[in-house]
Amino acid sequence: MICYAPFNFTSDSPKSGIETQIIDFLEKNPNSDAHTIAASIDYSYASVSAKMSYLKRLGVVRVVDTVKVQFGRSRNLWAL
Questions:
Q1: How far is CA 41 from the centre of its chain?
Q2: Parallel, antiparallel, or unpaired: how do β-strands 7-9 and 2-4 relate?
Q3: What was the pLDDT predicted at 64?
Q4: What InterPro entries does UniProt report for this protein, alphabetically (predicted)?
Q5: Assign residue 71 a region: left if phi > 0, alpha if psi is -120 to 50, beta otherwise?
Q6: Which of 5, 26, 27, 32 has the fewest CB within 10 Å, making it most exposed?
Q7: Which pLDDT band, with edges at 50, 70 and 90, does 5 fall under?
Q8: Dist. CA 53–CA 56, nearest whole Å
Q9: Alpha-carbon span 72 to 66, nearest angstrom
Q10: For residues 41 and 54, is the Cβ–Cβ distance under 8 A?
C-alpha cells in the first residue's frame, strides 16, 4: 500500500493518470506542499470534474457553495 496524506492508494487499485503523476511526484519530492503538487500535474487530458476533484483532495481548492442550474443539476462554486 502506498499512503500519502490526503491520498491512500492500494497497489492493486486502478490508478488514473493524475493519481500516477501524484504518486511519482511524491516519491521524488516527499516534502512537497499541496500547491506544489497541484502545479506539477499535467491536467491536459483530464475532465474539469476530475481536475477539481484532485485539487480538492490536495486541499488547494474548496467548495464554497453549490448552486442549482438547468434541469435540476447543481454546480459547485470553488475558491482557493
A1: 9
A2: antiparallel
A3: 78
A4: WH-like_DNA-bd_sf (IPR036388), WH_DNA-bd_sf (IPR036390)
A5: left
A6: 5
A7: very low
A8: 5
A9: 12
A10: yes
Q: Are 77 and 63 in contact (CB under 8 A)?
A: yes
pLDDT in tens, 12-26: 555 667 777 777 887
pLDDT for the residue numbered 3: 45
Can you point out the beta strands (E) in the chain? 2-4, 7-9, 62-68, 74-79
HSE, CB side, 13 Å, CA atoms: give it for residue 3: 1
Going from N- to C-terminal start, the domains of the chain cover 2-79
Going by C-alpha positions, the residue among 18, 22, 2, 20 that lies closest to residue 10 is 2
